[in-house]
């Protein structure tokens, strides 16, 4: 973080270097910028998905369209990240595989097509949620089940 007063005062032109009143005025004008920068950094940090908690995390979820549904902050954070992935997904097979990897943390993941309009996704992941099918359906194109 910068000390704006310490930067601004030495930058006074030569004719004002010995003016204690002008130096004090300059310090009084730019001094609050340090506090402002600190506060702005805190506001920004509190609103990232990885660092937000409570109401700030609820705001992140509202932006991407993911309701809290009684989840704790950590579970809700994962759901928000997945919703971001769903929102930017094109529904390609690669996107489906990436989504499955995100949700299940597997060592192996496979995509198979079964006709008509069906995609089979296989994983050996440990973190298989009971609602994974509906989550993956959000990722898939409308005509694929």
Describe this structure in words.
- The protein is mainly alpha-helical and 145 residues long.
- The protein has six helices and two strands; from the N terminus they run αααααββα.
- A two-stranded antiparallel ribbon has the order 1-2.
- β1 and β2 form a beta hairpin.
- α3 packs parallel to α4.
- The longest helix is centred in the first third of the chain and has 26 residues.
- The chain is elongated.
- It starts with a helix and ends in a 6-residue tail after the last helix.
- The mean pLDDT is 86.
Features:
145 residues, mainly alpha, 2 strands, elongated
Distance between the termini: 52 Å
Report the total helices.
6
Order of helices and strands: HHHHHEEH
Mean pLDDT: 86
Strand order, sheet with most strands: 1-2
Write the layout of secondary structure elements.
Elements: H1 4-8, H2 20-45, H3 55-64, H4 73-88, H5 93-104, E1 109-114, E2 118-123, H6 132-139
Antiparallel strand pairs: 1-2
